[in-house]
Amino acid sequence: MVLPLLKLGTLALKTLSKPVANRLKKQAAVSPRFRELIISIAQANHQITTKMQRRIYGHATNVEIRPLNETKAVQAAADLIGELFVFTVAGAALIFEVQRSARSEARKEEMRKQELEAMRQRDEELQKEVELLRRKVEELEQLAKGQGLSGLFKFKHTTADTAHLAKAA
Q1: Which pLDDT belongs to residue 41?
Q2: Which residue has the higher pLDDT, 127 or 84?
Q3: Using CA atoms, how far apart are residues 30 and 13, in angstroms rounded to an integer?
Q4: DSSP result, 50-80
Q5: Are 77 and 45 in contact (CB under 8 A)?
Q6: pLDDT at res. 25
Q7: Cα distance between residue 144 and residue 52, in whole Å
Q8: Least confident of 4-8, 19-23, 61-65, 155-159
Q9: Contact yes or no for 44/93 (Cβ under 8 A)
Q10: Would you give the distance in Å from CA 106 to the centre of its chain?
Q11: pTM of the model
């Protein structure tokens, strides 16, 4: 019951993080100091991705890369911030899910160990009981050899025999 609700909660968290990311984008475009910061981040990101693309496609990498205009830089940085926020929320949810799963597995393993220990104890008890029964069978065999077969099958005790046995004891 808890697992489906937990997964539903993480899915809802991921879904709700997208509007929050959009709100962050809008705020990034409005605040002047934050705007300068994100423009520099966007320009650095543009430089890095352009160089990587040039290397991948086999083009020259020593060519000057033109910076983005301010509007495109703000939009690119806002998109980057939004994606990073969604990625961070998804990563946090994933880490939480992995830890929860590990705790669940640890509990199951502990239960298995307890069950195995209980089975070992039961096995030891049964071994002791079998040993006790084996000794009793040996004692009965010794008695049977001492009394002979007639002693084993003597079911009825007469009153005299019972009185005789009581005096002997």
Answers
A1: 87
A2: 127
A3: 26
A4: HHHHHHHHT--SSSPPPPPPHHHHHHHHHHH
A5: yes
A6: 67
A7: 96
A8: 155-159
A9: no
A10: 6
A11: 0.52
Assign 154 to helix, strand or coil: coil
pLDDT number for residue 112: 96
In whole angstroms, what is the distance from residue 6 CA to residue 12 CA?
Answer: 10
pLDDT at 133 (0 to 100): 94
Say if residues 87 and 17 touch (Cβ distance below 8 Å).
no
Residue 144 CA: distances (Å) to CA of 22, 88, 155, 164 = 94, 83, 14, 21
Is residue 67 within 8 A of residue 73, CB to CB? The reply is yes
In Å, what is the CA distance from 81 to each residue of 5, 31, 71, 168? Answer: 29, 14, 15, 102
Tell me the helices (H) and strands (E) count for the chain, helix number first: 4, 0
For the chain, give the number of residues.
169
CA 67 to CA 73: how far, in whole Å?
A: 9
Positive or negative: CA dihedral 107, 108, 112, 115: positive
Query: What are residue 60's phi and psi, to 5 degrees?
Result: -65, 140
